[in-house]
Amino acid sequence: CEGQWTSRAFARPSVVEISKEGTKGKAGLWRPTPGKWTWLNLFASWCGPCKEEIPRLRKWEKQANFSLMFLSLDDDERELSRFLKAPEGADVGTPIWLKDDNARGKWLAEMQIKSPPNLPVQVLVDPEGKVRCVSQGAVEETDLAVVREKLK
User: Fold this and answer.
1) Which residues contact 81 (CB under 8 A, 6 or more apart)?
2) Of 64, 125, 129, 152, which is most buried, counting CB atoms within 10 Å of its CB?
């Protein structure tokens, strides 16, 4: 996020909770974890770099003390459910799903993320609910030091 540090309000997306069994909950507005840094990872089940970084992000969540949430941009709920049932989807847990409709395009625009985005996308939200960083692209193991510095 070098040179991209911002301080704008977080746009709350309209999302659906989804699990291995399919849709888990009704659509609703999602918000970051109050009082704690939140890392929102936008991914899709077909995205190779997304799948590669998921275990890394889970490890970082413990090491850098932030709340990690995965937001799926999959177009097909069945494809996402299949991914969650596979071993490679285990680290995602229960992601939220931003369905492909007008709400997705509106939210991406509010977050100043191009549509369709270059996945994966990383969004860091501070404890006060302000977006501090939006970065398109995968994280690498060497990025952890930068992340720790930013979250101080």
Assistant:
1) 18, 19, 20, 21, 22
2) 125
Q: Round to whole Å and give the CA distance between 26 and 46.
A: 24
| Cα 32–chain centre separation | 11
* Three-point CA angle 3, 37, 110, nearest 5°: 60
Distance separating alpha carbons of residues 114 and 109, to the nearest angstrom: 7
- 48 Cα distance to chain centroid: 15
- In the predicted structure, residue 12 carries a pLDDT above the cut 70: yes
pLDDT in tens, 51-75: 999 999 999 999 888 999 999 999 9
Residues 137 and 42 sit within 8 Å (Cβ to Cβ): no
CA-nearest of 17, 59, 16, 10 to 38 is 10
Torsional sign, CA 73, 75, 79, 80: positive
d(CA 7, CA 125): 9
